[in-house]
Amino acid sequence: MSGLSLFWQRYRRNRPAVGGLVVLGLVVLAAAFGPLAYGIDPFDMAGRPSTLPSARFPLGTDVSGRDILAGLLAGARVSLLIGIAASLTATLIGSAVGATAGYVGGWLDAILMRVTDFFLTIPSFVFAVLIVAIFRPSVAVITLAIAAVSWPSVARLARAEFVSQRHREYVSACRAMGMGHLEIMLRQILPNALPPVVVIGSLTVASAILAEAGLSFLGLGDPNIVSWGYMIGVARTVLRTAWWMSAIPGVTILVTVLAINLVGEGLNEALNPRMRPR
Amino acid sequence: MSPLLAVKGLTVDYHGMHNAERAVDGVSFSIARGETLALVGESGSGKSTIAHALMRLIPRGAGSVSSGSIAFEGQDLLALPEAAMRAVRGGRIAMVFQDPMMALNPVHRVGRQIAESLLAHGKATPRTAIDRAIELLTLVGVPAPEKRARQYPHNLSGGMRQRVMIAIALAGDPALLIADEPTTALDVTVQAQVLAEIAAIKSRLGMAMLLITHDLAVVSETADRVIVMYAGRMVEEGNVEGVFSRPAHPYTRGLLEATDWEGAASDRMREIPGSVPNQGEMPPGCAFAPRCAIATERCRIERPSVERALHGGGVSCFAAGSPS
Amino acid sequence: MTDAVAVPLLEARDIVKHYRVGGLLGQKIVHALDVVSLSVATRETVAVVGESGCGKSTLGRCLVALEEPTSGILFLRGAPSRSILSIEPLRFRRDVQIVFQDPYASLNPRRTIGQSLDDPLRVHRMGNRVERREQAEQLMLRVGLQQRHLDRYPHELSGGQRQRVAIARALAPGPSLIVCDEAVSSLDVSVQAQIINLLRDIQKQTGVAYVFITHNLHLVKRFAQRIVVMYLGQIVEEGTTEEMTARFLHPYSAALFAAAPKLWRGGVRPRATPPIGGDVPSPFAPPSGCRFHTRCPIAQDSCRTVEPSLRQVAGRTVRCHLAE
């Protein structure tokens, strides 16, 4: 049985994870094709403000008359983009730092881990706000700010994996045959350390989306884009009267983040299968 | 005189991920009082499974005894309710495992662990338990037993821990001691001590022993009778002298030759080609046929039953008695 | 005949290895190796035996430069290993290889057999991808495996097969010496014979030398030309197999070999020698004087106070005041 089909067979066993994957797939499709297919500019104040869902505006309009569905679809793109980019950046940085600390050990390990711990003690959201506030809010800055607060968790995990693997006998065998350290780290240990890193990377996407939503809600988002957090922020003033304007993007965030978490759990079980069947 | 333990047609299946795996297939044997019976085999032979089945230690979800009977001191162990079995387990039948660190509780002092066993089987009162525990430590050859009783497992060497485990086993006054690879993890000199001590205790208390091991040399030095297991089936049994000097089954012969480092004639060791079949790939006839030099068509199709061997014991082989 | 003045293939001179254990409070020093010297000639098999804490595994790792000795020098063909490793490390790594005990742990579980065999070929730049694949296929055949196994993962192979892969991997760069660190101890007994035969065949074909670290003393008698007995970080006796097995000069060597259970296959049953008492002392606190004196049946006063040095007696090396 090929690796991929074996992986899928294991993943399939977790029903909620499959459900999460389906939902996530829908979100990705909506993000990829939605804005193009729907065709309406989310910033366009095309309708009367605060209307309920109707034939023309399937999800109604917001306080400025903008199409909520258009905003949702555009927001999907933004959220996924920032979520994935931030997570990828955090994972790369965190893996590099953690792998080096774990493999080399000694004083380098101590220094890198103290730096990591320092970042971990700073309240992450506040720190992200700080970074965005210092530099102009833009997609790039937001992505980097979120990555800056997310990498330490990945680093700790990567370090733990590398520490545990570096004493394994297959690593000794590679040293005995004259393999260089970099090759051992990347070619030998990394494939073994990857599964938990992949899982934490996927879960980081969810937290990145939440962070972005939070930043946008506070008005620190990129002013040129519509994101889910921005939509909730804009509807803040009419929360009691036009609750659906906040609820719809809010529920969308909830569903997406939940789906990602389920997928992450599914990945965990598929990549690190428990020895005995359930 | 009726045997202490009589096992008939024991079959144990494990419930694997896809299908059932037959770990033990129709094994029958008996142990007389005071006798040492060795159960010998390599990995996949089912010898450890038999021990766990005897003590009813196989987790219910993992596997079960599919058929057979286990008669101990007249009782059918498989039919006993769990509460009654608990009294037998650690009491009249005690077990010693390979790795004492797994069996001993790391956060309790060893004296207390022995005392717990004494109390559980009604062999001492809370007042007398510790003294009796110290007596047992003396019996198993632990020097300075009062001091040792107050120590934790990690304070003790491997040999000491194994002796503590034996003491716990003896606490219940067992008629049968099941020892599953009791000395495999020990240093050679310590192994020799522990084996000698077990032999002395055995004869002093009139205890029977079921010794499970892969080490034929240990069997030849300590056991009265031996059963050779292969892929869950019994292939040969008899008294040690007979089986080892005139092995009837080709597997037994091969095993003896492969491990007879001292006595082997030529420079090369005689090998048994191939490897043990996985449970899912068992051939229809004799399990050993694919690797057997003298296998016939009949061996490949039909499962041999137990016949009388030249040495007086039993052998499952159509070609037994033929020259190899 | 060997040239008496020939440079040995590998020579360890006065190797000392200390480990520092423990944190800020109560740091202790373990003397894993205490001035150990060993030399190996081409095509020779030297067995290193001893119990836990004797340092044989540490010695093995020092011989393949996986560990840096605290002091002492390792010479490969007369040149200090330190200089070879700093100038041209691959030259050392090509010539001296190691096979570990646990065949599963020594293979990367996420890489196929083919990839694991490609590693040493690639590191030593032995051809392009196609040529390396061909060499890998040849290596597989050499160790008795089939080429289709190249695309399998370690967990799909049996223990014996995995160990064959580990041997193939060690052979890949064409070494003159292979350290076998308990290379057969984790395998089924019938498989051990197969692997020993394989190692022997390889030695006949390629002239490779072995340093065979093991606790199986009977195996040693058949397989090795020289035996080195270690105790608590020191060599206590060293000599040819023939001479040693005829008569051991050191009481520990004698006790060690006497303690190993012997396979008895009929005839007169050998008389069991009473085993020596005591545990192997902790390497953290080796006894004063002769380290063996706490367990030695013939210890004298001088043994308790004065540490014996290695001396030549009857053509071999012994560390004992009383040997002659």
Protein traits:
heterotrimer; A: 278 residues; mainly alpha; MetI-like fold; 10 helices; 0% strand; C: 324 residues; alpha/beta; Rossmann fold; 8-stranded mixed sheet; 4-stranded antiparallel sheet; 12 strands
Overall description:
The complex is a heterotrimer of chains A (278), B (324) and C (324). Chain A has helices spanning 3-12, 15-38, 68-104, 106-121, 124-134, 139-166, 169-176, 181-217, 228-234, 244-271. Chain A is mainly alpha-helical. Chain A has one domain (26-43, 59-275): MetI-like (MetI-like fold). Chain A is elongated and about 75 Å long. Chain A starts with a helix and ends in a 7-residue tail after the last helix. The mean pLDDT of chain A is 87. Chain B has an eight-stranded mixed sheet, with helices on both faces. Helices cover 32% and strands 22% of the residues of chain C. Chain C has an eight-stranded mixed sheet, with helices on both faces. Chain C has a four-stranded antiparallel sheet with strand order 2-1-4-5. Chains in contact: A-C, B-C. At the B-C interface, helix 7, helix 8, helix 9, helix 10 and helix 11 of B face helix 6, helix 7, helix 8 and helix 10 of C.
In sequence order, what are the helices and strands of chain B, one letter per element?
EEEHEEHEHHHHHEHEHEEHHHEE
Q: How helical, in percent, are the residues of chain B?
A: 25-40%
CATH C-level of chain C = Alpha Beta
Low-confidence stretches of chain B: none
Provide a compact summary of the structure.
The complex is a heterotrimer of chains A (278), B (324) and C (324). Chain A is built from ten helices and no strands.
Compile the SSE list and pairings.
The complex is a heterotrimer of chains A (278), B (324) and C (324).
Chain A: H1 3-12, H2 15-38, H3 68-104, H4 106-121, H5 124-134, H6 139-166, H7 169-176, H8 181-217, H9 228-234, H10 244-271
Helix pairs in contact in A: 1-10, 2-3, 2-10, 3-4, 3-6, 3-8, 4-6, 5-6, 6-8, 8-9, 8-10, 9-10
Chain B: E1 5-15, E2 20-31, E3 36-40, H1 47-54, E4 63-72, E5 75-76, H2 82-88, E6 93-96, H3 100-103, H4 110-120, H5 129-139, H6 145-149, H7 158-171, E7 176-180, H8 188-205, E8 208-213, H9 216-222, E9 225-230, E10 233-239, H10 240-245, H11 250-259, H12 297-301, E11 307-308, E12 314-315
Parallel strand pairs in B: 3-8, 3-9, 6-7, 7-8
Antiparallel strand pairs in B: 1-2, 1-4, 4-5, 9-10, 10-12, 11-12
Helix pairs in contact in B: 4-5, 4-7, 5-7, 7-8
Chain C: E1 10-21, E2 28-40, E3 45-49, H1 56-63, E4 71-76, E5 79-80, H2 81-87, H3 89-95, E6 96-99, H4 113-123, H5 129-142, H6 159-171, E7 177-181, H7 189-206, E8 209-214, H8 217-223, E9 226-231, E10 234-240, H9 241-246, H10 251-259, H11 301-305, E11 311-313, E12 316-318
Parallel strand pairs in C: 3-8, 3-9, 6-7, 7-8
Antiparallel strand pairs in C: 1-2, 1-4, 4-5, 9-10, 10-12, 11-12
